[in-house]
Design goal:
Blueprint: H1 2-30, E1 35-37, E2 41-48, E3 52-61, E4 67-73, E5 78-82, E6 88-89, E7 94-102, E8 109-119, E9 127-136, H2 145-150, E10 153-157, H3 161-166, E11 168-169, E12 173-174, H4 180-187, E13 196-200, H5 205-216, E14 222-224, H6 228-236, E15 241-242
Parallel strand pairs: 2-9, 10-12, 10-13, 13-14
Antiparallel strand pairs: 1-3, 3-7, 4-6, 4-8, 5-7, 8-9, 11-15
Length: 246
Amino acid sequence: MIKRMNKVKRNIICGLILLMLLVLISIDAHAQPKLSANKSYFDFGSIREGMNVPVKFKITNTGTKKLKIQEIRTFSSCVQSRPLTKNTLTPGESVELEYVFESLGYGGTSIDKQIEIHYKNSALSPLRLNVIGKVLPLEPYQAPMGELIYNFFVLIDIRSSEQFIKEHIIGAINVPYEKIEDWATRAAKSISDDVIIYLYSEDGTESDKAAKLLQKKGYSQYLSIVGGLKEWKNQHSKKFLVSGKS
């Protein structure tokens, strides 16, 4: 009888210990960092290919311990537009995720892509968020903005304004030779080095001098069209030539 009672006591004690361990494990499981977002997905609706969409999430540490964001994994066309203002979040603290979805190449596609936010010391990591929407294909009469930037150049006629009004290549702007250096200095504030700027004069002589001068000043993207307007007419006759102000 005594042996049976001792066995019962031992079982009760073991049961209590096991229960306490389960409680402690449960408490410890809840006492950890937990990253949550203001929404589980970002729906940009329908856009036309070539448009860029800002993607924003607000993420918050809703756990009971401080967390550190280790890594954010996105798909190739979702690029960070602004770095995180902080990587470590105390309980209750938030930070904005700011990305841009670049739709070029996704025409006619339904998007359902994932962003993963990995953070330290939590079994709940990573937090997974989705970007969804539809990219409409381009119409035959449309071109994406990226194509314009990729092929972008500036054409400058450095002859006198009288010569320019009489005849010039369509799309050219008129900056006479004596003003081109000042124009290049002002333009440098808004035109990046990867934009090619073509100069032409009547026979290429003045545009050669201007391009050489500007390159010495550090403006490497300025190039002179060999032979100028005279050579254009030699090769293309009156094609793309117009008169009057552009």
